[in-house]
Amino acid sequence: MSVLTRDEAQTRAQILDVERYTIALDLTTGEETFDSRTVIRFTARAAGDTFVEVQPATLRSISLDGQPLDPALLDGNRYPLTALAAGPHELHIDAAMRYSRTGEGMHRFTDPTDGETYVYTQLFMDDIQRVFAAFDQPDLKSVFAIDVTAPEGWTVLGNGVAEHTGEGRWTIAPTPLVSTYLVAVAAGPWHSVTTEHAGLPFGIHCRRSLAPYLDADADEILDITRALYDRYHEKFDEPYPFDSYDQAFVPEFNAGAMENPGLVTFRDEFVYRSAVTDTERQTRAMVIAHEMAHMWFGDLVTLAWWDDIWLNESFAEYMGYQTLTEVTLPRALDSVRAGETPFPDTWVDFGVARKGWGYDADQRPSTHPVAPDPDAVPDTASALLNFDGISYAKGASALRQLVAWLGEKDFLAGINTHFARHKFANATLADFIDNLASATDRDVHAWAEQWLRTTGIDTLTAEISAPEPTAGPTEPAGNGQSWALTVTRDGSRPHRVTVGAYDHALGTQPGLGHLALRDRFDLDVPGDGTPTIRPGRRPALVVLNDGDLTYAKVRLDTASWDTVLTSLSGIPDALTRAVVWNTARDMVRDAQLPPATYLATARTHLPHETDLALVQGVLSFAAGQVVDRYTNPDDLPAARATLTDLCRDLIRRTEDGSRPGLRLIAVRHFIDAATQPDTLRSWLDEGTVHGGPELDPALRWRILTRLAVLGATDETTIAAALEADPSATGRQGAARCRAALPTAEAKAAAWDTLFTDDTLSNYLFTATAQGFWQPGQEELTDDYVARFYPDAIALAARRGPAIAEAAGRYAFPAYAVDPTSLGTGTRALDDPALTPALRRKLVDQLDDLRRALAVRSAVVLAD
């Protein structure tokens, strides 16, 4: 398949205006293909040559202005339109198209629970040609009118209101001008909950087998949706630009969600069939907020080319988190009273869960600017690689810093000017910066060059000069003493930060963990080099970037770090604690803090932590990176014991049932960390954790997976569990368990399934890969490390970007932390057959492997 280049897109945009697509899809023609008939009305501004994209199973016919063309001229995924005369044209294409099993194009899924089938489109970034013929680039916006023929009993959803006209035929209202990749259709026997808000139909939809779970959360989802809709209308002058708002939770979805106008699609894991924490509910709400923000950032105003993807994703990320902190609900939820903000601490979750994603990506060889130079994104294949922690988390962090520097009033004025000038059209970075600049006297162009056109992370280091703090209560300001703060910056960006100064609280002694905020003040970095003088004794703790308003690594002074080790859980603000935990995380990754010290700090302070996002984030890093990758083999027993003891302590502290979310997190991590099967077996046999919770499907499969890793279960038990839970997630759980079994036969069967069975769906591929590589099974898997690279390269070439991404992310030998594995992988990067998607994942994974080796080596040298 040929990928579209930027030069080709610019040339075609100069030649064509595309007025309307009229599309007829027939979903009743079989399980492998569907029929697609497309009429494209367009105008050629001048005579010339161009092409249309289509990737059919069979191209039955094609005609231009009533004259038949030869289907045999199709070249891969392009049909040439040569000697095109200036003026209006009408192109007709009739084709059979293949259903997808990888979440690309028109994905088809049959629910193993009840045998019902569902299909939905995912047309980003250049997969529209898998569904219908198109001039597929974002700056050729058009009107799309779609008719769908579906099996009786199905419901069809689309970008506009869909009307059932009888005999399985549905007509979807034509769209306003939108980009090709935003067209969406979803069809099947959906379970739907509908309402009306602000004069528009709203709906949420899922598979029938998930109906009870969607119904249980329908009020929460719809209340949040309506509240966000209203809040965005308070922020934005342009009204919501489409005729309805549907949210479909669809199976085997590759992303978290997709911002199709009027029909947002979500992965249906957001329909919770097992217990979840309030933080996970907050995550679902944030994704709803993110996708709704896209209705303006991305759908109303769209990038002209993929170098400006940050104009979509960074803004939706920032607006999603910020707006969710501002909404209130009209009625009570389980833990929220009517009129209250349901999720006031979303930036804590961003700091601990998302920001590290950006920091990690920005320190790899594959880093790129938030807004890369257009020449750095020459085609759609390279553009796809930029949907990463930089375009999302770093970009959102930069925007948060921009708002702190610019002020929210001027920021909103600038973006409203942007919407007004470019609605239903396309815009570039230059357009956006010009629109922001029109609302302020500040030099936004210089800010953009420093923040959006550069790579890497600045490091801000605090130096304090003053007498050492004394034990006891806070000293009052103005007692004749003072302390001085000097901040050094390793990097080039300007930062507006908040500094927090904390003392041991009244009546406490150092080491008891209670801190009180003495002072909080703003600081511009770099300044003129003059120390900032503050009154009073030297604080026990000074935190740069208190409030997490900038994007930078932070290093505390020595005395402050000593306070952190004893009093971290006593910092009164969760967002400040997130900044400090991120500092500890960065120091471990930079080999400046021993992994054992991070674990000991977690062991000391997590039992006292009140914010679930922090508990989850710290435990995830401790288990997935500190123990499994950064700890030397000789130190593993002690590290695993520390982690297990921590989880056991959390479970004991929640026996009264007062904190079910914290208990659920602790139980999950205890299961994953268990080195002996006895407790897990007793929970599984009794159907409950002692003292609760009762085992739901997610916990049952989690326990069974860990028992498989430990060699404490077998195929018979796995098969019985699958019979008891024959759902899609049950099938994934069984695949994960089978691949995790510590036998040569199980590993060989899993490997064959991954790399030779091309019928495996994207989700079953991921589950099998997750099960295959397990810490402690190196004797079984060592021989597969070298096999991974040629097998993954061949697989990616056959099955495309989605499976390439899954192979690079989940099937990579991440636990083979040794120089031989690094050398094997590094040599594989020279293979000319590597696809761009797989190459990017391998570059990132190998850099993480290199970092893990460096951390282990630093510990050995220190010893």
Distance between the termini: 54 Å
Mean pLDDT: 95
Sheet with the most strands? 8 strands, mixed
Reading side by side through the largest sheet, how are the strands ordered? 5-4-7-2-1-10-13-12
Approximate strand percentage? 15-25%
- How helical, in percent, are the residues? 40-55%
- The chain-level structural class is alpha+beta
How many helices?
26
Evaluate the radius of gyration.
Answer: 28 Å
The stretches of 5 or more residues where confidence is low (pLDDT under 50) are 471-477
Features:
863 residues; alpha+beta; 28 strands; 20% strand; 5-stranded mixed β-sheet; 26 helices
Give a concise summary.
The chain is of the alpha+beta class. Helices cover 42% and strands 20% of the residues.
Question: How would you explain this protein's 3D organization?
Answer:
The protein is α+β, with helices and mostly antiparallel strands and 863 residues long. The chain contains 26 helices and 28 strands. Helix 14 (612-630) runs antiparallel to helix 15 (636-653) and helix 22 (762-772) packs parallel to helix 24. The two termini are 54 Å apart. Mean pLDDT is 95; it is low at 471-477.
